[in-house]
Backbone:
C-alpha cells in the first residue's frame, strides 16, 4: 500500500490518496516524493476521514502541471452563475422495459441466469460517468432462484456485492454467495455496469442494482414487498453496508447486512450519500464474520468494526469467527442467513 498524506503526517492527515498493491503504472511514484501534487478521483470515507483510491497514474500529477492544465481547459469564474438557476419541469419519460422474460427461471437452485436491463433516464443520471468517461446505457444483471420458487409467496432476497479488486464486478460473487443463498431458499441478485473500474462511484453501483431490482419487479409484481438483505465479503461487505442505505432510500424494506471479513463500516458513508431515514438504518441487523487467521482482520480490528457499527445506532449485531483466512466461510454465511430468516434478534 502507498499512502500520500495531505496536510499532516499519518495518522493525523487531513486527506489521503491511496495506491493499492498491484495497481499498475505507479513504478515512478517515488519521483514525486517531497513535491507538491494534486490528485483526482472519487472521494470516499475511511475511518471517518476522506480519501481517494488512485486507479491510474494520470490521476496524480505535480501541482504545477495540474494547474497549467486547469488554466487551459476550465471556464472562467465569470461563466459560473452566482444565483441559483431555475429549472423547468421535465416531463417523465417511459422507463425502458427489461428483458427479464428472456431469462427463464432456473431448473434448480444455484443456476445463474444473466440478462441486460436498459437504464431509465433517472438511473443514467444517477450513475453519471465512470472514471474513464463511460456513460452507461444498461446494467448486466444476474439472478439465482431457489428450488420450488413461487413468486406469489413472500421471498427473502439477497443483493450481492463484490470487492473493488475485480473492478466491482458483483456478478463474480454470485456463484459463491448466490449459490449458498439459493440452496437455502433465497433469491439472489447482483448487477454491474458496462465499465469495470476500481473507483466507480457509489451512485453508479446504486443505479445498476436499482435497474436489476426494477426488472425483478416487472417480472414478479410482488417483489418489492419481499424481505431484502445485502451481503458481501471484504470490500463487498463494506459496499453492502453502504448500498443498504441506497436501497432504503429507494423504498426497499432492507432488514439486514452480511459483512464478511470487513475491516471497517460504511453505513455512515451510505447515510451521507443517499440520505435514507436514519430510523430505518438503525433498525438494520448486521452480521459480522471474520476468519481467526485472517491476515487483515484480527480480533482487535473485529472489535473496532463492531463498535463502529454500533456507533451508527445499530443495535442488532451478531459476531462470528471461524477457522480460516480472509475468504467467505460457507458455514458462517449460512448461520447469517438463518439468523436473518428468524428475524435477527440480538
Residues:
Amino acid at each position: 500500500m502507498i499512502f500520500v498524506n495531505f496536510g499532516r503526517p499519518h495518522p493525523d492527515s487531513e486527506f489521503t490518496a491511496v495506491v493499492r498493491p498491484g495497481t499498475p503504472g505507479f513504478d515512478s511514484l517515488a519521483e514525486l516524493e517531497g513535491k507538491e501534487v494534486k490528485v483526482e478521483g472519487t472521494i470516499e470515507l475511511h475511518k471517518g476521514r476522506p480519501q481517494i483510491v488512485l486507479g491510474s497514474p494520470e490521476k496524480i500529477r505535480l501541482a504545477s502541471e495540474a494547474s497549467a492544465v486547469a488554466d487551459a481547459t476550465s471556464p472562467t469564474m465569470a461563466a459560473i452563475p452566482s444565483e441559483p438557476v431555475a429549472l423547468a419541469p421535465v416531463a417523465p419519460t417511459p422507463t425502458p422495459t427489461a428483458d427479464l422474460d428472456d431469462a427463464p427461471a432456473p431448473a434448480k437452485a444455484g443456476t445463474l441466469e444473466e440478462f441486460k436491463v436498459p437504464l431509465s433516464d433517472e438511473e443514467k443520471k444517477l450513475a453519471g460517468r465512470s472514471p474513464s468517461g463511460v456513460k452507461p446505457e444498461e446494467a448486466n444483471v444476474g439472478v439465482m432462484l431457489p428450488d420450488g420458487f413461487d413468486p406469489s409467496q413472500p421471498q427473502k432476497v439477497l443483493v450481492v456485492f463484490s470487492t473493488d479488486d475485480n473492478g466491482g464486478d458483483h456478478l463474480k460473487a454470485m456463484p459463491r454467495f448466490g449459490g449458498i443463498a439459493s440452496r437455502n431458499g433465497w433469491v439472489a441478485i447482483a448487477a454491474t455496469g458496462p465499465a469495470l473500474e476500481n473507483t466507480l462511484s457509489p451512485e453508479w453501483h446504486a443505479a445498476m442494482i436499482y435497474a436489476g431490482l426494477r426488472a425483478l419487479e416487472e417480472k414478479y409484481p410482488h417483489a418489492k414487498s419481499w424481505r431484502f438483505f445485502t451481503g458481501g465479503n471484504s470490500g463487498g461487505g463494506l459496499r453492502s453496508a453502504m448500498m443498504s442505505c441506497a436501497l432504503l432510500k429507494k423504498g426497499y424494506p432492507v432488514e439486514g447486512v452480511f459483512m464478511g471479513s470487513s475491516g471497517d463500516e460504511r453505513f455512515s458513508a451510505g447515510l451521507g450519500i443517499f440520505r435514507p431515514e436514519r430510523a430505518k438504518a438503525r433498525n438494520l441487523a448486521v452480521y459480522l464474520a471474520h476468519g481467526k487467521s485472517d491476515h487483515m482482520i484480527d480480533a482487535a480490528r473485529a472489535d473496532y468494526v463492531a463498535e463502529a457499527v454500533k456507533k451508527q445506532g445499530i443495535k442488532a449485531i451478531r459476531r462470528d469467527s471461524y477457522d480460516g483466512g480472509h475468504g467467505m466461510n460457507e458455514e458462517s454465511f449460512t448461520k447469517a442467513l438463518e439468523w436473518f430468516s428468524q428475524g435477527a434478534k440480538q
